[in-house]
Amino acid sequence: MCCFFLAPCLVLLAVLLLSSGADALQVIDGSVTVVQGDTAILPCKLRLTDSTEDLIQITWQRRTREKPSNDNFITVGPSQETRFVNGRDDRFKYIGNFNDKNGTLQLSNVALKDEGSYTCIFTLFPSGNQKTEIPLKVTVPPFTNVKENLPTLGTEEVLFATCTAAGSKPPAEVRWLTGALGDKVRTTTNSIQYDNGTTTTVSSLFGVPTREISGQWVQCVISGDFLTKEISLPFTIQVYFSPTEVNISLISEDTFECVAEANPKAKYNWSRSGQPLLESAVKVEGAKLQLLSLTSGLNGLYRCEASNPHGSKHSQLYVHVASGTCSTAWTLFGLLVSFNVIGAAVWGLSKSGYFKKRYHLVSKDSKNGTNSQREILQEKDLNCLSRGSQLTAVESRNG
Ligand SMILES: *[C@@H]1O[C@H](CO)[C@@H](O)[C@H](O)[C@H]1NC(C)=O
Ligand SMILES: *[C@@H]1O[C@H](CO)[C@@H](O)[C@H](O)[C@H]1NC(C)=O
Ligand SMILES: *[C@@H]1O[C@H](CO)[C@@H](O)[C@H](O)[C@H]1NC(C)=O
Ligand SMILES: *[C@@H]1O[C@H](CO)[C@@H](O)[C@H](O)[C@H]1NC(C)=O
Fold first, then answer.
1. pLDDT tens track for 53-106
2. C-alpha to C-alpha distance for 195 and 173, rounded to whole angstroms
3. Which domains does the chain have, with CATH numbers?
4. How far is the CA of 319 from the centre of ligand 4 (A)?
5. Residues 205, 147: contact at Cβ < 8 Å?
6. 3-state class of 183 per DSSP?
7. Which ligand has its closest atom nearest to the C-alpha of 274?
8. Which UniProt keywords are listed (predicted)?
9. Would you say the CB of residue 269 lies under 6 angstroms from ligand 4?
10. Taking a C-beta distance cutoff of 8 angstroms, is the pair 176, 71 a contact?
11. 214 lines ligand 4 (CB under 6 A)
């Protein structure tokens, strides 16, 4: 009978004692969260109005990842002197006030190993010890990057890039914003957790490496509790390919330009078959070949090679300069037999009192053998050049 009443009373008494003990200590925040490398304040202040209690000592204990047993590590005496118990660690600094019964401790350059529980103990006379525990949480922001996988043109799905958030705590969320690409791309996400509590999260972006997808802009977004705002890593999908067809076209009266689609951009090299380029008569500037003077010394086959690290391709241009009479029209003929294998372009001009230019382009599809013709007419009045001359250029293309 007695025990039936007594047991609940004892429990109640214990609860009252515990809560009065906790009430005596004021902790500004029950738990402290700090970013690795920052400074943590471990607040602890005794809210004891009873001045008959004398404070003898403040003791700090800790139980951390590094030291899993609860050990004393700092004591503070009445003259504010701080004593390290198990080895000195100058990152800890007592910033409280002993007379004020304030035990607050500062820890600078917080490391992951410092994570754990810190106990602040006030040794009072005559009542004994009063203590409180402050959990310290350490967050670690991730190292982030997007790594390109250098895909080349193809029809099978490949990995375009990986986005990594390495060594974060808590784990990062990594996702791709692929906008209009929709289901043309696919993503997968994996993570590995390490013993020290950090996690590496990797998200991969896959798709078919087509010409169309190259140049598309996507973003890898990394978020987590360690950050106040998300990290956005923009990324442009690149699909690499060697120069495709090489086109030679006339871009002004006397200048040809070589154009090839390639990724990365092609470098161009003009050369002349069998002999060096005539430096006095032609000028080469990157993709451009300029004929400085129309002399028969120019006659011959010129070759433009477009190349990048993935391969090269070339086209040829046949130049023939013939003397002619000063007729009324300067006609320019460009014959381009293009597409897959062979092509030829004939370009002729004659000069006269009235400078008329005509660009005549014939395209021939070597697959079905039919000719399609395109004509580009340009007419201009210019001064007559004393002597007429005629230039014929034949372009032939090799695959
Ligand atoms: C205890 O000391 C710290 C550091 O000096 C101070 O920031 C804090 O306000 C003090 N606590 C109280 C309750 O006075
Ligand atoms: C956690 O462990 C991993 C793997 O051992 C290591 O690469 C990383 O640097 C560690 N992180 C911290 C903050 O100590
Ligand atoms: C080359 O010329 C063909 C025919 O005019 C055209 O379809 C193609 O787009 C051109 N290629 C480049 C790289 O300019
Ligand atoms: C350009 O092409 C010619 C002939 O193929 C070659 O001899 C020369 O080395 C090339 N120049 C460059 C800069 O690649």
1. 889 999 999 999 888 899 999 999 999 899 999 889 999 999 999 998 899 999
2. 19
3. 31-138 (2.60.40.10), 143-236 (2.60.40.10), 246-397 (2.60.40.10)
4. 20
5. no
6. helix
7. 4
8. Cell adhesion, Disulfide bond, Glycoprotein, Membrane, Repeat, Signal, Transmembrane, Transmembrane helix
9. yes
10. no
11. no
